[in-house]
Recover the amino acids of this structure.
């Protein structure tokens, strides 16, 4: 029987229990890939925003971005191996000069393409046509909006971001995104504005739809709840605010073995701005590459060798298995 | 003159031990010893070291109360937050503040719940004014 209060499990969790592999083994589980459905391409750390929770540590002053040569290697892999889904992220991926090349080429061979779009980048120079560009290429748009109220959104993403985000959503709606039967999918991403787990995805999605619809007249398809990862800028916040131990304990105590099967690392390979391969975007940010003996770069990408690979893990993996689980597509266990 | 160790009671539960030592020069030396410690919440299971049968029954009941039922987890967390404030239990306020956030409530909703608890506490005090009136009327000409 669990002896947990709503927030904190009363069973003591010392740091030695923070081993993710040990926790999997205790449940008789091993983390291996199950095919490659998605190639997630992180085109770099350049972003027009500097969000407080960003696991990429992205911002306007970052210069690490994917070159055209590496982008071409990505496209060669997509074409050669008929990758079903290409998920383009950053930073703000639109700021990479090779962004539109990647989109056009991947769509040209019939790949489903998702873009992680932060909404406000639409107001940067040369980006005003993004809604039409997204529509013309039939992209799935996944946009961050941490809350339906201005105060929380601006607290995480910067002053004025909420107002700009609402305007950007209106523009996406105007070309058909998020509108019923348009075929243009606009999904939103919620991250907690602090050191706590996301609420149940279904009930929060209903709140977002009601509040954004009635207060601002904007629409979207689905809401993805994603847990904040204890790495980079969010880890800095946890340490500065004295929340690191408590947050890690929360993640560890909320470990849900039912979430393991649906973890995104089981169906994707992540590639960074230099062309190096990882099991996920979070491993990428802590420089935890694909297991030794397997292809390490996009130039050597080989789905056969990677399809059943052993996935490398670290403490931050508890972020993806806590509660209802967390992935780039939101919760992995139905609420 | 204040001296030695005494307990300060703040609006109900005992919150802190305050040690007042002899005056140092022109000022009093004051140090606050925390009575409620955040980490003690993690030690709640130690209550089960004695009569574990009773503790297990309590925990089973406690957990069952949290589950979705005729009320949602979110509604129950808001009730918990309100009751925590009425009881002025720091552990419960910590727990249910986080439970409210993790079940999707925002600060406006949580603050309304706290006002509800406070209003009922205030009303409960005020209605006893009738008792005072009765008392006064009984002895008055």
């Amino acid at each position: 029987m669990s002896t947990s209060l709503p927030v904190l499990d009363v069973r003591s969790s010392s740091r030695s229990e923070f081993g993710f592999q040990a926790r999997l083994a205790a449940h008789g589980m091993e983390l291996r890939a199950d095919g490659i459905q998605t190639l997630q391409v992180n085109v770099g750390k350049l972003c027009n925003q500097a969000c407080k929770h960003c696991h990429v540590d992205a911002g306007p002053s970052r210069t690490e971005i994917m070159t055209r040569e590496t982008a071409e290697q990505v496209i060669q892999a997509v074409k050669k191996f008929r990758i079903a889904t290409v998920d383009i992220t950053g930073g703000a991926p639109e700021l990479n000069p090779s962004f539109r090349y990647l989109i056009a080429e991947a769509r040209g061979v019939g790949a489903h393409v998702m873009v992680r779009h932060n909404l406000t980048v639409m107001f940067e120079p040369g980006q005003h046509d993004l809604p039409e560009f997204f529509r013309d290429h039939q992209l799935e748009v996944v946009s961050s909006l941490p809350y339906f109220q201005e105060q929380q959104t601006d607290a995480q993403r910067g002053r004025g971001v909420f107002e700009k985000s609402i305007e950007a959503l209106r523009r996406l709606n105007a070309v058909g995104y998020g509108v019923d039967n348009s075929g243009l999918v606009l999904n939103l991403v919620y991250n907690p504005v602090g050191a706590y787990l996301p609420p149940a995805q279904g009930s929060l999605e209903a709140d977002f739809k009601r509040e954004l619809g009635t207060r601002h007249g904007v629409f979207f398809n689905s809401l993805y709840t994603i847990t904040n990862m204890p790495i980079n800028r969010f880890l800095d916040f946890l340490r500065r605010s004295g929340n690191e131990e408590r947050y890690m304990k929360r993640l560890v105590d909320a470990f849900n073995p039912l979430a393991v099967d649906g973890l995104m690392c089981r169906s994707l390979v992540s590639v960074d701005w230099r062309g190096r391969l990882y099991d996920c975007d979070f491993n990428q940010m802590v420089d935890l590459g694909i297991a030794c003996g397997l292809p390490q770069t996009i130039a050597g990408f080989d789905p056969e060798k990677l399809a059943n690979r052993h996935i490398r893990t670290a403490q931050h993996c508890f972020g993806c298995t806590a509660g209802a689980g967390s992935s780039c597509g939101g919760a992995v266990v139905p609420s | 003159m204040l001296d030695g160790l005494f307990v300060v009671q703040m609006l109900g539960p005992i919150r802190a031990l305050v040690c007042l030592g002899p005056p140092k020069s022109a000022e009093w030396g004051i140090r606050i010893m925390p009575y409620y410690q955040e980490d003690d919440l993690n030690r709640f299971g130690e209550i089960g070291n004695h009569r574990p049968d009773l503790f297990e029954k309590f925990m089973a009941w406690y957990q069952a109360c949290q589950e979705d039922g005729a009320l949602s987890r979110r509604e129950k967390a808001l009730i918990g937050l309100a009751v925590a404030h009425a009881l002025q239990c720091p552990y419960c306020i910590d727990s249910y503040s986080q439970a409210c956030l993790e079940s999707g409530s925002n600060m406006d909703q949580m603050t309304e719940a706290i006002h509800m608890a406070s209003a009922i506490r205030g009303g409960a005090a005020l209605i006893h004014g009738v008792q005072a009136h009765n008392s006064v009327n009984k002895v008055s000409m």
About this structure: Strands of chain B lie at 4-9, 14-24, 27-34. Chain B has two domains: 4-34, 67-137. Residues 1-26 of chain B have pLDDT under 50 and may be disordered.
